[in-house]
Amino acid sequence: MSHRSSDGLDDLALWRTFLAVHTAGSLSGAARTLGLTQPAVTAQLQTLERRLGERLFARGARGVTPTPRAEALAARLAEPFGALATALSGADAGSATSHAPVRVGGPAELLAEIAAPALAPLVADGVRLQLVPGLSGALVDGLRAGVLDLVVASERPRGRAVVAAPLADEAFVLVASPAFARARGLARGAVAPDALADVPLLAYAHDVPILRRYWRHVFGTRLEREPALTLPDLRALRAAAIAGAGVTALPEHLCRAALAGGELVDLRPSDDPPRNTLHLVRRPGAPAGPHVERVRDALSHAVTSALA
Length: 308
Hints:
Blueprint: H1 12-24, H2 27-34, H3 38-52, E1 57-60, E2 63-66, H4 68-88, E3 102-106, H5 108-124, E4 129-133, H6 136-144, E5 150-153, E6 163-176, H7 178-183, E7 202-203, H8 209-219, E8 229-230, H9 234-242, E9 248-251, H10 252-260, E10 265-266, E11 275-282, H11 292-306
Parallel strand pairs: 3-4, 3-5, 7-8
Antiparallel strand pairs: 1-2, 5-11, 6-9, 6-10, 6-11
């Protein structure tokens, strides 16, 4: 006869692991976020799947893909887990949990090029950090679930379970290497959509979201093209463009040095470039640790300064 609680509270640790895997998109990423080993995360997830009687993720070489059932569960659990994390924050300020790592999510390139250097003095001063790269939607779900403390999001999240403050606007630039532009006859400052009809496009995702926005805002047309290269890291797209692979649209702050150094050229300079607002997102109420406010202030200043 089982003596397990029928209210499900015995499984809270398993559900927290489930949400961490859903947010990170991989078992290894969830392990880093939770401070566990990957085998421990795998074992917890398998235990939960056995209790539910179904698989929650399809395992692949590049991570895991949630099933429709997992997506529905994550949507239901994220907000309650976030409320629980908020309620427990500061409950035992004198314990070791008050020195837990501050967990910050955001785009990989922003974490690498802006957040990590800006937060280095805090790390040297004893602050522990976990920087978790990912897409905004999944990261905000992790924030709601209490897996993360702060998220830099490329879109304003909906709902009242989180608080979002605008940080800065990032402007996008259409770039290529000088040699590529010359070879394709792309005259700097006068490039029209027709001139770009056959050039390889380097994109963040298969549906070319940044390039679509650029085409719509600058050219007033709809971009319906397959990318030649897809990679969800703007630093890699920058490197590929510098190497002469093709044309891409990048945030100005990510290609400022390459433009100044002549490694890239702006194919369509504009006083009204496409812009996107970055938001710093947190849970409402008191921060979950003594260093969260320090990290939030330093991160806000760094992002605002970098995008100015």
